[in-house]
Predict the structure of Carboxy-S-adenosyl-L-methionine synthase.
Amino acid sequence: MSRTDRSPEQQTDRLFATERQPEDFRFDAAVARVFPDMIRRSVPGYTTIIPMIEVITEQYAQPNSNCYDLGCSLGASTLAMRHGISFDSCSLVGVDNSEAMIERCEHHIALDDHSLPVSLRCENIQETELTNASVTTLNFTLQFVPPEQRSSLLSKIADATRPGGALILSEKIRFDCEDEQTIQTRLHHEFKRANGYSGLEISQKRSAIEQVLIPETLDAHKQRLKDAGFDRVLVWYQCFNFVSMLAIKAD
């Protein structure tokens, strides 16, 4: 269970349970209210990835550096990073362009029993100033950035990352092989059904998000990270069509 699950305001995700007019998915107040339930039931391995972000942060956070959670939403990965940072001289910054998400993230940060200050910014992550970074997290965030803007964002992160620092990148991916894409998609949908989503909910959510969330292949992600300036890129977790990567700058 992630630390954000302690909020008394958490609601069950029923946003797509009844027929609705088609519209693109937005991280608005309605999504913010159900987000912990939505992502837990929609993203295979999410409840494993969050605590491992703490473990990875502990390994790569450096004293007198900045750590960033870009696309922090309600703060699950921000809090994981916070608990993985052992240096009081570190600064931790969470960034999201949704006011509804930032408001609830502030609530979760206040509930957390850790002394490291967290600075929250409501802004577009492409516009966030990044400097002196040792750990940066993009936890299911890059997939919502327009594809033509992804290289420049990753280059900015790599340029800001200190030697020995790292980027944690979690993404939904697609596969070149059509058969594998079909199998992995079916397994993902079965995961959702096992978590209580109906066929209508799965179908309507997919229609709402398919023009907003643009997945790419694992090879495309790896090559872009290397082109951006990271020296090593490895997959540390995969479940169906969801992966988390670690991109490292050489010492």
Summary: Residues 86 and 113 are 14 Å apart (CA to CA). The chain has one domain: 1-7+16-251. The radius of gyration is 17 Å. The beta strands are 66-70, 91-96, 118-122, 133-139, 161-172, 232-239, 242-248.
